[in-house]
Amino acid sequence: MAERRIAIVPARNESGAIGGVVAEIRAFDPDLDVVVIDDGSTDATGDIAGAAGATVIRLPFNLGIGGAVQTGFKYALEHGYSLAVRLDGDGQHDPAELPKLIEPVLKGQADIVVGSRFAGSGAYRPPLARRVGIGLFARIVSLLVRQRVTDTTSGFQALNDRGIRLFAHDYPHDYPEVEATVMVVRHRLRLLEVPVRMREREHGRSSITAVRSLYYMVKVLLALVVGMFRRTSPGGSS
Amino acid sequence: MTPFRVSLIATVASLLLILVVFELIRSRRLRERYALLWLLTGCVLLVLSAWRGGLNTIAGWVGVSTYPPAVLFAIGTLFILLVLLHYSTVISKLADQNVILAQRLALLEERLRSRDRVRES
């Protein structure tokens, strides 16, 4: 295999899960380099990830998920990786599902493949409030990109070099996946959704609480609407 | 017409604002770039405070017939809004740059650490 592959794992205060996540990814595919972005953790997340065999990038303070993930894409770009997968640091993304994401990229069917909890086999049912939010965004994003999208909040993704370059140069903040989905299509990258199963969180709680999710919803909606009036930025993809 | 005392006090206040801004620039506590809007605010308020006839005319234009200083107040408010909006853009830019710096720093630190590791082994 000539091309280099990397797994990007953003993690904040995931000392309970991160060791297992890194070990699992490495066990799944030893050729897959693992880089953990320690997003200003106050616990031993970085040390544990390093001990488990990951390259650790420690952000000096908490940037939020968007800034953390983008750091990973920048790392991938600078080190010449041609394929990147992204998994969450809490263990909800099962590396055993990775082939479903990677294969369409390797076959050149898509530039970015997103694992969806809702397309097909996944029997995932989140709490009502989140389901409404996720469904709403799926509807809006589907309209915007003129393509059926079922899960705009999934951070379980695989990208080729074009996707890596785009996200290294421009990636949304805080709650990035929804906007990123639209960005991808606007830059004329091919997006593909594949059904995956996700696990329940092993440790900790979701970073999105009830009050915050409303704030995020309004914010992301604003970003989507404004984004429609934005010309695609140069330097992204070409 | 604006009462003379109102005009006088507003003029003094505007002069004071300009003076304070000037002093802040002189002592390098305020960059020229961010002072410009404040100076403009001070100058506009100064002119309209001192030139009672002008304020009266403008008040006539916008349909304020009873109390012309209300226009002074409105214009002052408008400029404050402008300054605040300008600051929001400045903060947004600083926040973006901050993120980029943090990412660069973290990437460089990792590079340095991995280089050290290679050297040790």
Describe what you observe in this structure:
By secondary structure, chain A is an alpha/beta fold. Chain A has a single domain, classed as Spore Coat Polysaccharide Biosynthesis Protein SpsA, Chain A (Alpha-Beta Complex). Chain A contains eight helices and seven strands, in the order βαβαβαβαβαβααβα. In chain A, helix 5 (128-145) runs parallel beside helix 7 and helix 7 (177-186) runs parallel beside helix 8. By secondary structure, chain B is mostly helical. Helix content of chain B is 87%, strand content 0%. Chain B is built from four helices and no strands. The longest helix of chain B is centred in the C-terminal third of the chain and has 52 residues, at 69-120. Chain B is elongated and about 85 Å long. The A-B interface holds A 37, 55-61, 63, 67, 70-71, 74-75, 78, 173 and B 99, 102-103, 105-107, 109-110, 114.
Mean pLDDT of chain B: 93
How many individual helices of chain A? Answer: 8
Described by strand count, sense and barrel closure, the largest sheet of chain A is: 7 strands, mixed
- Work out the number of β strands of chain A: 7
Task: Using the coordinates shown, work out and report the CATH topology of chain A.
Answer: Spore Coat Polysaccharide Biosynthesis Protein SpsA, Chain A
